[in-house]
């Protein structure tokens, strides 16, 4: 394995934000690793999903949303996976991508998002301002095993993960639990966020733990507004799909061109909607400053009554009914009689007449003529009506900043899995595709399949990118660190012969003896970098040898010898 491949394959182990950005195929590798994991397959046996057998994928997806909401927390603790420096990370990837390109597109290296995204600098927003300007967190994307193991971490009562972890989890679970074809799921990464577009009905976006339908996208609520921020304001850096990926900075793309065209069209349709009173009300719900220029009129026993728009919007709080949709009349019925006025309020637009105008004229706000027509209707009641109309047009029609289509598309064998296959059949099929598709091969490293993978990427990641275990051992002598590790629970978060990284062992206070040996190897490499180390795994017996030997008991049944040289070289004999 040449140095560049070793860097990429070791990145499939640690899966940091930076590593996924530089090696975009890693994103889908993690989806496949989660599909191979037994954890999500067990969800299908839960009563809440068993009851939905024979139901539509959409029904199952809506139940999956509630399951994820119940079982997972969103985690953005900067120090979960420790800290590194900008300089160290930029040097790692200088041979792949120029540092200035990274700085333009990555939140940890100078990128601060669109001016509308945050009104504070990005370091302050994420709490990085308490560190030196060069220090950044290892934002690592967790496997489903690492997400599930947060239950063992102090302060967490359930599973957890950050946005990329949740996106890859949703993609795998939508396939396994809901039966949604992988071909209908597109992963979308921006510098500050990660979400999926599911090509179902009018389209569905995942957003951290939530799902957002097109109706929800345009309802004007605070939750929907937050869900919009990434696609409304940021450059999409990567789109990943079973057919491949496209990256905003790389000239070469592997995603099938027709698939990418289809995605662009479907996402564009999802992000754009018609103008009607329902969507106008959603706009006012979001842009509250304009509510004072509108009024609602209702008939009461043959006489008109009028109501300030802002008063009616206040009744929405705590009510299941909304202005402008099919529940509008029910909301009006909840309003106290004293809030109605018997005369038309001067200087306010009547929403019944606005409804007539929109229904009859159908102005297209994507055109100058349509914007001028609506501005003329509002003029006289709304100060600066053109400004309102421009904001309304922006609310109704979002233009995502997707990677340009002008790429050199390289055809690769697509990843093809069937919803009718069981887990064992899927793993066997992926094994058969490893030679033809690098993403699939990398998936087995993300899966931590130590039986069929080269051990060097795992070992390189273990002793180079696991700062949490080093911090935990900083005040301990070598003997104290050994006794501390031996005192941790003897249980791996990974089944079979798969292995946890050192910081996973430390964060969750548990690990197999072989995993603990890697933790100690990481500690020794940094406490005494001048010594050579040898880690010997012989089924149930593991020995880490350097200036002295340390024994561990293992249930992993793996065999091999790893030699860590003081010059940084790692050799493997199996």
Description of the molecule:
- 44% of the residues lie in helices and 16% in strands.
- With 574 residues, the protein is an alpha+beta fold.
- It folds into three domains: 3-272 and 401-446, no CATH class; 277-396, no CATH class; 455-573, no CATH class.
- The strands form six sheets. It has a six-stranded antiparallel β-sheet, sandwiched between helices.
- β7 and β8 form a beta hairpin.
- α3 packs across α22 and α26 crosses α27.
- The chain is elongated.
- The protein starts with a helix and ends with a strand.
Q: How many domain regions? A: 3
* Percent of residues in helices: 40-55%
| N/C terminus separation | 16 Å
The proportion of strand residues reads 15-25%
> Main beta sheet: strand number and arrangement?
6 strands, antiparallel
Structural class: alpha+beta
Number of strands: 18
Task: Tell me the Rg in angstroms.
Answer: 28 Å
How confident overall, as mean pLDDT? 93
The total count of helices amounts to: 27
pLDDT < 50 stretches? 115-120
Shape descriptor reads: elongated
Sheet with most strands: strand arrangement: 8-7-6-5-9-10
């Amino acid at each position: 394995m040449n140095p560049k491949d070793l860097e990429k394959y070791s990145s499939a182990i640690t899966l940091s934000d930076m590593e996924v950005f530089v090696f975009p195929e890693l994103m889908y590798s993690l989806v496949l690793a989660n599909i191979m994991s037994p954890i999500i397959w067990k969800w299908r046996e839960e009563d809440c999903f068993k009851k939905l057998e024979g139901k539509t994928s959409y029904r199952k997806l809506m139940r999956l949303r509630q399951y994820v909401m119940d079982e997972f927390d969103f985690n953005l603790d900067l120090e979960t996976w420790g800290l590194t420096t900008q300089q160290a990370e930029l040097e790692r990837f200088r041979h792949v991508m120029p540092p200035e390109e990274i700085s333009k597109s990555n939140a940890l290296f100078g990128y601060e998002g669109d001016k509308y995204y945050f009104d504070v600098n990005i370091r302050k927003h994420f709490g990085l301002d308490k560190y030196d300007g060069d220090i950044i967190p290892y934002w690592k994307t967790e496997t489903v095993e690492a997400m599930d193991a947060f239950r063992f971490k102090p302060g967490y009562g359930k599973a957890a993960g950050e946005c990329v972890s949740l996106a890859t989890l949703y993609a795998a679970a939508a396939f396994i639990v809901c039966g949604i074809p992988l071909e209908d799921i597109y992963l979308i990464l921006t510098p500050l966020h990660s979400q999926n577009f599911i090509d179902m009905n009018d389209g569905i976006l995942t957003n951290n733990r939530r799902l957002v339908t097109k109706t929800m996208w345009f309802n004007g609520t605070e939750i929907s507004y937050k869900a919009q921020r990434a696609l409304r304001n940021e450059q999409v850096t990567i789109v990943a799909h079973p057919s491949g990926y496209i990256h905003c900075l790389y000239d070469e793309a592997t995603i099938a061109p027709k698939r990418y065209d289809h995605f662009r069209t479907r996402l564009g349709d999802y992000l754009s909607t018609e103008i009607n009173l329902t969507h106008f009300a959603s706009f006012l719900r979001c842009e509250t400053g304009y509510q004072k220029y509108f009024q609602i009129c209702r008939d009461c026993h043959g006489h008109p009554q009028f109501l300030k728009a802002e008063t009616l919007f206040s009744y929405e709080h705590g009510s299941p009914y909304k202005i402008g949709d099919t529940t509008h009349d029910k909301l009006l019925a909840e309003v106290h009689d004293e809030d109605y006025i018997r005369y038309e309020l001067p200087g306010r637009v009547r929403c019944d007449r606005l409804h007539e105008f929109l229904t009859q004229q159908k102005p297209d706000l994507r055109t100058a003529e349509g914007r001028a027509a609506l501005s003329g209707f509002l003029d006289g009641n709304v100060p600066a009506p053109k400004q309102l109309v421009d904001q309304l047009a922006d609310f109704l029609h979002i233009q995502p900043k997707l990677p340009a289509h002008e790429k050199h598309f390289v055809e690769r064998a697509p990843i093809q899995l069937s919803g009718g296959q069981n887990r064992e059949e899927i793993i066997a099929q992926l094994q058969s595709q490893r030679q033809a598709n690098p993403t699939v091969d990398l998936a087995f490293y993300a899966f931590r399949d130590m039986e069929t993978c080269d051990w060097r990427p795992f070992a390189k990641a273990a002793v180079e990118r696991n700062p949490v275990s080093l911090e935990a051992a900083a005040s301990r002598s070598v003997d104290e660190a050994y006794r501390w590790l031996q005192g941790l629970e003897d249980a791996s978060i990974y089944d079979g012969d798969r292995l946890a990284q050192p910081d996973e062992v430390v964060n969750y206070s548990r690990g197999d003896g072989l995993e603990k040996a890697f933790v100690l190897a990481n500690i020794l490499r940094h406490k005494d970098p001048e010594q050579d180390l040898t880690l010997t795994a012989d089924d149930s017996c593991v020995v880490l040898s350097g200036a002295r030997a340390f024994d561990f008991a293992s249930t992993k049944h793996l065999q091999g010898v790893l030699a860590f040289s003081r010059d940084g070289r790692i050799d493997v004999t199996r």
